[in-house]
Fold this protein.
Amino acid sequence: MSGASGPARQPPGRRRAAHRYPPSVYRRRRLAAGLTAALVVAVIFGLVSLVGGGSKPSRTTSTTRPTTTTTSSPPAGTVGIGIRTVTWTDTDPHAGAVFNPAPGGSAGPRRLVTEIWYPSAGGSKTAPKTGAAPDYGAGPFPVVVFAHGFNTLPATYAPLLRSWVNAGFVVVAPLFPDENANEISSLGSATTTQLEEAESDIVNEPYDIAYVVGQVESGAAGDASSGAKWLKGLAEPGKYALAGHSDGAQAVAALVYSQVATQAYASTYAALATRPFAVIILSGSELSGTYAPPASSPSMLFVQSAVDQCNLPQNAAILLHDSGGGFFLELLKAHHFPPYVGVGPAAPVVESVTTAFLKAAAAGTPTLAGLTPAVTSTSIAVLYGPSKPPVLTTLPTPTPTERIAACAIPSSSG
């Protein structure tokens, strides 16, 4: 979960938080480990000032430098949306870094039930149809690998994912083994400790994302062993973006930008056969350790609410600075979930801007002038370019009651 202060998530071993909250709390993202309270204040003050003013064999590490693919605009005017589900199992133990702290869990293998949302040759743009015929005639389409947040499913974000598919993208959304809503529900009346242990699995999710990217690439090449060779002609090889919300955004950011020596995120990212053409961070922050932009850093869009008490703006400021910066959509009044699940006036703006960003990044290099028209109301959001980031106001630490309210998923989502 996003936003709460407390101990950083740890590598292998079960994390025990210093603060306990009711099971209805969904997000608590931690500040970097090892910082004293005084240093945290200094870092936040300094950064805010700076900002404002089936199965497949185990993964192997490649020594070949990732290739750069030629970008092109995604096809437009899709007829409908289809959904298919595949299950991929990663048996690579990642040198012992992977652990599964949920009750009954184990160190592996990682079973990743993955939903693939794609342009279909018939059907509806608003009501995805399971197993609909892929629109091969208009393909291939760029891919967006999407990472969900704690206690959610890809369907939680249906309006946002639909907007991307309707714009000409294939969306690939794995269900993380311990954090997805189905697993949380299976715990029954889970204790706070059980929920926090389940969320601790986030340290494995950057590897999951990289593995899914590899499986999609295999499927796009027609490899039968991927269990998704039907992606050939539908998903464009070597052309993908990474996106995530909350804990999912944290996992994406860790894969691309984290330099933690005790975990192999940086080497896992470096071993990808091709790099993402774009990264979208929706209300995200850092895990622990050192973050820095990788070589040939992809275009980045950060979306953050100025009043989000679940993922505090000052936490977003740290990630924005450490990742090297990028486009920043500041939501002026929205909170942690509504803009990403189709609820409230900010949701259409988020859908419009993220879609415009993906299309521009797929075609080449996004520009502030090119993206600004996608902001349909300046009373709802303001878009900043990489050369002039926003001034992010530090919010006080919310009370437990405020945090619970801020992290709740709207009942009318979808």
Remarks:
- The beta strands are 80-90, 110-120, 129-130, 141-147, 170-174, 235-245, 278-282, 299-305, 327-331, 381-384.
- The domain at 37-407 is CATH 3.40.50.1820 (Rossmann fold).
